[in-house]
Amino acid sequence: MTLIKAQRLLCLLLLSIPALPALNAQNAAAPSDPEATRRTRALFANLRSLSNEHTLFGHQDDLAYGVYWQREDGRSDVQETCGAYPAVFGWELGRKFGRGKWNIDSVNYDAMRRWMRQVYDMGGVNTIGWHLDNLSTGGTAWDTSTTVRDILPGAPLHHLLVEQLDMLADYLKSLRSRGIFSHYIPVILRPWHEHTGSWFWWGARSCTPEEYVRLWRFTVDYLRNEKGLHHILYAYSPDVFEDESHYMRNYPGDEYVDILGLDYYYRSYNLEQIKIDLPAKLRIVADLAEQHGKVAAFTETGFETIPDKNWWTQMLLRQLQSAARDKSIGIAYVLVWRNAYHRSKSDHYYAPFPGQVSAGDFIQFSRDERIILQDRLPKLYKRPKNGSGLKVAGASLSQNK
Ligand code: BMA
Predict the structure, then answer these.
(1) Is residue 17 in some structural domain?
(2) Atom 7 of ligand 1 has which residue's CA nearest to it?
(3) I need a labelling partner for 323 at 20 to 30 A (CA). Which of 8, 15, 174, 252 fits?
(4) What's the pLDDT tens digit per position in 314-366?
(5) Can you give the pTM of this predicted structure?
(6) The ligand 1 atom nearest the CA atom of 348
(7) Cα–Cα distances in Å, from 381 out to 40, 52, 185, 187, 319?
(8) Ligand 1: distance of its center to the CA of 163 in Å?
(9) How far is the CA of 161 from the centre of ligand 1 (A)?
(10) Protein residue with least CA distance to atom 4, ligand 1
């Protein structure tokens, strides 16, 4: 073949590629960290591309404890209710590193690392939040005394923030897979959450938007550049907000955020309002994620004690569906809050367990085509070959749950 013929052939081949524009556009979206590991990049792109049709279901501390049980290997209230584990698992770092071996909810850090590895081995996703103690006063995360300005670079207590981030970095560095091809397990880190509320020391009434943005950027820059961590996706998750500009008021910038989230709880007194309000809010988050090339997620929600027996299909599912529009991205995952194990907190649970009033409806929810639990997970840590798309098992398969 002459050189000219070969060039023509190459041109023809290249011309045939734009037949896959939508897919390429979605695959082109990349995490905010230009040096993100291969698996982290795959996770980001896959969450984004699955979100139009699917939403991964997640539960906080699912493997650690449930209603009236704690630390029993293999147990999960979700799995015992519907036959499948969640697809997303939320974990908590708080109160403060260095205070002992257990976090604020009596979860042991070593056990948590083991569970995170199990989640990764199951093909699931780990997301980590942090109710960090107030570093100025020694109070809890809910001590809203002004603190942020004391711990920013150049401020007198900055070393206390650095000390915590050093320990966080060590913990994140220890999140590696097993075996000879050991590698970092990608994680979603969700720092400084619910800042539109005023119940945490990094909240709306305790710091200015500028201070918040500096705190966020310092956190990311320190972990990424000083500590060289590239297996992290960062989730920004305001609580309730008024409109787009309120949502973006403290936005640290596209170079610092991967996931646009929302924390929003159902409460008996606001059910009527939430029916109208929530789909609109989720839509704003999804639209912003689309515009900024990010993933959209419902980063925390739930209806404490789930007193409405049809809540899963009649409320949550409908609202997730209404957030997705034709060909645009939708809500990639939803995480319901924890099922407290202690009898003194017997009304603090958000996922069903066998016998709970909404258990039957949760089974229906878990079998819906949109919702993905662990048994229908596509391979999230691998980019699909161009043109092949993500493979999600049909909902019919999960009839065996
Ligand atoms: C809150 C409650 C607390 C818990 C904290 C951190 O929403 O669930 O009981 O200690 O989150 O997980």
Answers:
(1) no
(2) 337
(3) 252
(4) 999 999 999 887 778 999 999 999 999 998 999 999 999 999 999 999 999 99
(5) 0.92
(6) 8
(7) 7, 18, 9, 11, 28
(8) 24
(9) 22
(10) 105
